[in-house]
Design a protein that fits this description.
Blueprint: E1 5-7, E2 31-38, E3 42-50, H1 61-65, E4 68-70, E5 73-77, E6 83-86, H2 88-101, H3 109-122, E7 134-143, E8 155-165, E9 177-182, H4 199-214, E10 219-223, E11 231-234, E12 237-243, E13 246-249, H5 260-271, E14 275-278, H6 283-291, E15 295-302, E16 306-315, E17 318-321, H7 329-342, E18 353-355
Helix pairs in contact: 2-3
The structure holds 2-OXO-4-methylpentanoic acid.
Length: 356
């Protein structure tokens, strides 16, 4: 059953800031889309309304037990002036899977896609057109029942907000990042929530990220929670390592997010006839590859940054500089291919774009 969405437009639309002032996640578009859930009515009362603070009961379970998750996807201004959303269906399905892990009712993928399209259509004026810009769309699901017992909530709010963004790290070109390999704190453990976009995973990441920043690094490389030996993710991104011409990325598990950009990179790599391995990847193997002179490239992938080259990895006092600290050819190639498809500048041969 499709959603019936009513729309109340703002009486005071705001102008979008100039592209060079956008940054990431600092500005918000004029509207939000909300849908309520309760056990009796299911998903109901879908509405687009002016962006405004939410009214939540102080006992709403999300505020106490953190039953909350989100997605992040982007809408792009196309070369012909229209708007297209990148990999809408993949995000819809991932949100439904994550909701199930958090004992939340997911919005059925068809309804999720309808809601995102309706939202982006209303916010057309907020889809920027400058290179490296997009409307970042943030669907979020929170538990709203006023109840302090520890069990899944019986009431939820799904909402979508939009943020016109520039590149995640600023600037138009790929900016290599310096990474601290974290050997004490962990992001996620086997059997935990790591494969979902639960807010809790990001809360868990903050302490080590702050520690890394203080030590002069941009982000953290996460190792597995049990042995602290295998690489899992980098910052809020999936990780790719190129050793002696082979692209290696950690195999998905319940402690690694199934990134949509990760999936896009793997599809392109296979299509381009590159050697790709999805398997456990030891930190020691990365260090050893460096010692042998075979560590060609390291980069992260995610919706926000698309591709983020790693200039340096700090394994304690062992500093590993990659490709002289410059973006490698594969990071460049994936970045340019994906961003060109996103903007309609190259043919969308995979059906990754949904026109609004
Ligand atoms: C992404 O790049 O997909 C992210 O999830 C980053 C976001 C949390 C800012």
């Amino acid at each position: 059953m499709s959603l019936s969405i009513r729309t109340t437009k703002t009486a005071s639309p705001r102008p979008m800031p100039p592209a060079e002032q956008l940054g990431f996640g600092k500005h918000f578009s004029d509207h939000m889309l909300c849908v309520d859930y309760d056990a009796e009515h299911g998903w109901h009362d879908a509405r687009v309304e002016p962006y405004a603070p939410l009214a939540l009961d102080p006992s709403a379970s999300v505020l106490h037990y953190g039953q909350a998750m989100f997605e992040g996807l982007k809408a792009f201004r196309q070369a012909d002036g229209g708007v297209a959303i990148f990999r809408l269906e993949a995000h819809a399905k991932r949100m439904e899977r994550g909701a199930s892990r958090l004992c939340m009712p997911g919005l059925p993928p068809e309804d999720f896609m309808q809601a995102i399209r309706a939202f982006v259509a209303v916010e057309d004026a907020w889809v920027p057109s400058a290179p490296s810009t997009a409307l970042y769309v943030r669907p979020t699901l929170i538990a709203t029942e006023a109840f302090l017992g520890v069990r899944p909530s019986n009431k939820y709010l799904f909402f979508i907000i939009g943020s016109p963004v520039g590149s995640y790290y600023g600037g138009d070109t790929l900016k290599p990042v310096r990474i601290w390999v974290e050997r004490d704190y962990v992001r996620a453990a086997r059997g935990g929530l790591g494969a979902t976009k639960a807010g809790a995973n990001y809360a868990a990441s903050l302490y080590a990220a702050v520690k890394a920043k203080k030590a002069g690094y941009d982000q953290v490389l996460w190792l597995d929670a049990k042995e602290h030996a295998f690489v899992e993710e980098v910052g809020t991104m999936n990780l790719f390592v190129v050793i002696d011409g082979t692209i290696i990325t950690p195999a998905l598990s319940d402690s690694i997010l199934a990134g949509v950009t990760r999936d896009s990179i793997l599809a392109l790599a296979k299509e381009w006839g590159l050697k790709v391995e999805e398997r456990p990847l030891g930190a020691a193997e990365v260090l050893d590859a460096k010692k042998r002179g075979k560590l060609d490239e390291v980069f992260g992938s995610g919706t926000a940054a698309v591709v983020s080259p790693v200039a340096e990895l700090a394994f304690g006092d062992d500093r590993v500089v990659i490709n002289d600290g410059k973006p490698g050819p594969l990071a460049n190639r994936f970045y340019h291919e994906i961003t060109s498809v996103q903007r309609g500048e190259k043919p969308d041969t995979h059906g990754w774009l949904s026109r609004v």
